[in-house]
Every structure is written in C-alpha cells, then in structure tokens.
Amino acid sequence: MLNKKMTEALNGQITKELYSAYLYMSMAGYFENKALAGLAKWMRVQAQEESCHALILFNYVCDQGAAPAMGAITAPPAAFKSPVDVFQQTLKHERVVTASINDIVDLSLKLRDHATKQFLEWFVKEQVEEESSADTMLQKIERVGTGEALFVLDKDAGARMFVLPTPLTGKI
C-alpha cells in the first residue's frame, strides 16, 4: 500500500505526463501549420510516449491498492516563435519532468518505499533518453536553421516510429 504522500506525488506525475502529451500535440499542430509534417510526426510520437508514461504510473498506483486521481490539465502554449523555439521549450520541459521524477525518487527514499523506488528507476532512465533526444533535435534544428536543410531534417524526423514502452507490454 502506498503512503498518502507518495500517492499524491504519483498522481501529480500522472497529470504532468498528460500535460506533456498535450504540449507535444500543440507543438505537432505548430509544425503541421508550417508544412513540416515530419517534425509534426516526431511530436505526435512524443505525445504518445507521454500518454504511455501516464498510463504506466496509473497502473502502478492501481496495482499498489491506491486510488488514482486525475488532476486538471492546463492548456499548453498554442503559438511558437520558430522551430528552434519549439525544441528549446521541449528540452526545458523535459528537464522539468526529470526534476519531478527525481523529487519522487527522493520521496521514495525518505519513505523507505523500496518498491516505488525500483518502479521509478525505469522513469529515471527514460528521462535521460528524453532529454538527450530533445537536445539532439535542438542541436540539429539550430544547425540547419530555416533554409532548405530544414526540409531534409523534417523528412528524417518523420521516420520516427512509436514503440510501446516495455512496462506496458501485454497491459493494453
């Protein structure tokens, strides 16, 4: 059974992950409106991943006999200055999510909740990947700017495929 503070922290993280999905869908819309369908797909895949992260957390809360509580999701920004701005915001957002996961890990240690700490290790590793992916895309988009090379990057970004996260295999 989860401690009340841990349940609240995990439920808060579910809301943050759903906000992340919402944010990335907004960013996908920005790229669609700029005729950058590949970058829009990249963001759609990102949104799918974030939705899965919320589901993984939701399942864990339920598996631990606690009650999931869905928080309100605020509207994400709808306007962006440029493709570079989008990926700067993406990297900044992923760093915020990483800090939030780390705070929950710290709470699990404080509460001596070893099961939750073990569960969260997947998210710790996932956030390393998320930040690296966002940083790589930011560096690429800064390098190519808004010229013709942007269309090559757009095509490459469109090759990204969604892969169901391992913790959900056989669960959805």
Architecture overview:
By secondary structure, the protein is mainly alpha-helical. The protein is elongated. The model has no long low-confidence stretch (mean pLDDT 96). It contains 5 helices and no strands. It is 73% helix and 0% strand. It has helices spanning 4-33, 37-63, 83-110, 114-144, 149-157.
End-to-end Cα distance, whole Å, is: 23 Å
Helix content: over 70%
Strand content: under 5%
Q: Average pLDDT value? A: 96
Broad shape = elongated
Beta-strand segment tally: 0
Order of SSEs, N→C? HHHHH
Low-confidence stretches: none
| Cα Rg | 17 Å
Question: How large is the count of helical segments?
Answer: 5
What's the helix and strand layout?
Blueprint (H helix, E strand, L loop, with lengths): L3 H30 L3 H27 L19 H28 L3 H31 L4 H9 L15
Helix pairs in contact: 1-2, 1-3, 2-5, 3-4
Summarize the structure.
This protein is an all-alpha fold and 172 residues long. The protein has helices at 4-33, 37-63, 83-110, 114-144, 149-157. It is 73% helix and 0% strand.
List keywords for this structure.
172 residues, mainly alpha, elongated
